[in-house]
Amino acid sequence: MPASRHILVLYTGGTIGMQQSAEGLMPASGFADRLRARQAEHPGQDLPDWQFQELLPPIDSANMNQANWLAMADAIRSASARQGCAGVLVLHGTDTLAYSAAALSFLLLGLPTPVLMTGSMLPAGAPGSDAWDNLFGALRTLHHGVAPGVHLFFAGKLMHGARAGKLGTASLDAFAELPRRREGQRATDLPPHLDYRQSRQQVALAVQPLYPGIRAAQLRAVLDSGIRGLVLECYGSGTGPADDAELVAALQQAHDLGVVLVAISQCPQGHVDFGIYAAGGRLAACGLVSGGGMTREAALGKLFSLLGAGLSQQEVERWLALDLCGERAD
């Protein structure tokens, strides 16, 4: 890929820029000066030219929400179209980094500019911190050339934005591209309303895991809360308590009222295939769409992008079943 020589560094907050307070680590502004000072202390790193933008206020990524995703997407579009940036590096907290990477993967479909996202497990300046290695490593990767699309860079690894996940908190090597089976027909042409230049609206969504003993009333409470889409985390290959007539009826009624239902597997290497077990087939008959091997983060981000574009239930279900950016296929 062509080298990216002018980069926007988009700072959203997160551990990488946090500073100690009486209450513990807190998001802090002023990270651009710290970045320039660190770079000046270590010249000759083969880095691109960069400019800095801070989304205010900087946040702990545990507080990340759809409005923040839309603000990031707006800033990235502006950097690509109006500021002439050849790449964007997003600095982000690790708690929801994989969620944001997945959401932006679908919000920025077709963007010609590569986007890398990174953060750190320890704040910049802390003993043994991974902050500068991740940040400068990501800048060098952009400088040498990265394919368009959204990527996650962490601990020296470049990962697909819609296939990565956070594995733990005890190691600096906290992220991996999850080894789920991937399949799905690739969408050949995207409709204009899914293009990265199109705006999105916030939309009420929910994620609900199935578990032994879940009651229909509990699921119905989620479905009746005003949501427009549900990511249902099923067992194994897409099964659940299909002999619970009330639970099945709750799903069917929600689907009949226009709620989009997408099924994913709870297993770290799981893949939904409704045709294997009768229990899975009964759930599919309620209107569930198979998410294949999509992660929770990818399924939620894709559902947000499709429903936020104003698509109908039928249109959303159609595009959920197709691969849009590599979330379902290599």
UniProtKB/TrEMBL annotation:
GO biological process terms on file: aspartate family amino acid metabolic process
Residue ranges annotated for the Asparaginase/glutaminase C-terminal domain, each copy included: 209-319
GO molecular function: asparaginase activity
Ranges of residues in domain L-asparaginase N-terminal: 6-177
One Pfam family in the UniProt entry: Asparaginase_C
UniProt keyword annotations, A-Z: Hydrolase
Gene Ontology cellular component annotations, sorted alphabetically: cytosol
CDD domains the record matches: L-asparaginase_I (cd08963)
Residues binding substrate: S61, T94, D95
Active site: T15, T94
The enzyme's E.C. designation: 3.5.1.1
SMART domains: Asparaginase
Signal peptide as annotated in the record: none
Protein origin, superkingdom: Bacteria
UniProt keyword Cytoplasm, yes or no: no
Record-stated family: Belongs to the asparaginase 1 family.
Name used for this protein in its record: asparaginase
Organism field: Stutzerimonas marianensis
